[in-house]
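Example record

Each entry pairs one chain with its bound ligand, KG4.
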Amino acid sequence: MSPPLRILGIETSCDETAASVILRDSDGKGHILGDVVLSQLEEHSAYGGVVPEIAARAHVEALDTLIEEALLRAGVTLSDIDAIAATSGPGLIGGLIVGLMTGKAIARATGKPLYAVNHLEGHALTARLTDGLSFPYLMLLVSGGHTQLILVKGVGEYERWGTTIDDALGEAFDKTAKLLGLPYPGGPAVERAALAGDPQRFDFPRPLVGDARLDFSFSGLKTAVRQAAQSLEPVTEQDIADICASFQRAISRTLKDRVGRGLKRFKAEHGSVARPALVVAGGVAANQVLRSTLQTLCAQSGFDFIAPPLSLCTDNAAMIAWAGAERLAAGMAADGLDVAPRSRWPLDAQAQALLGSGKRGAKA
Ligand code: KG4
Ligand code: ZN
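Structure tokens for the complex follow.
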């Protein structure tokens, strides 16, 4: 038994402004009391990607109101809050400054502790908020800026088993969509187009499949898509659908191989875990084809497949508040008000930086 904790979370690392109040009850269970997310999709869509300066300005304009709204929905005031948790990295530095400074200001004004949270830790611990999952477990984070396979051992204890050596998976979807003339963000557009396509028509490459390491690579796939599209000029709607379906098939096969190896490694190193689990997070986890591939893989390998609801897979502040709650409950020290935002901040400080991984540094 531990005292119930109410935490205010703030998230501004990329193109979502978010505020949330969560409760960690005395049994350690998580409850989302108030949660608001404002997407900046419209501000950025004309540019085909996130524009850092526009993002930072939009965070400034919205954050105060969103925090008020989250508190209101939770039915609490700042005096009921036990700590403030703000994303302080990795991400776009302008946005991080906005969220962290706001967190600091609230901490200063209320005298409450501040936790400067690693955004990736927010993703990594979400399955404990939603499903009360026990450590250790394996997480596949697939978003616009990251593609990582991470062993989650405990709060603050992460081992990166694999990462992309070039493009993140979401980035591969976005770039593929762009070169096929589909709208931004590319993932949902590619998935929609693929519904009418023939996944067997193109045999796209599956880089690193069979490789003993657990890393990922997607830039060759993107190049193959470009070459296929160029060879068909002018491309028809059916061509686009077929390319999208074949692209998703190549990714499915890649994930099956890479993640499959990760599951084997988990079993070899953590054989005593009674119910091993794979958690997926990140915007790409919305993709139904990839989800069902992972689900089947887990079923065949004796793993539980845990995909938190989509609103908690993509960027949100409830996961940041929860990470703060986990840190506070574990007796970890709060951060000083001099803590600095970090555009790069790997979860696993021991992991070697790989060429290109997280190179946009912007999105998680
Ligand atoms: O986690 P997220 O919402 O934002 C950050 O990257 O921080 O992920 C966004 C990424 C984008 O690259 C988007 O194209 C991709 O997730 N995405 C998808 C789908 N929905 C979003 N990719 C494939 N299939 C989808 N249905
Ligand atoms: Zn993220």
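Residues 5-131+311-344 form a domain with the Nucleotidyltransferase; domain 5 fold (CATH 3.30.420.40).
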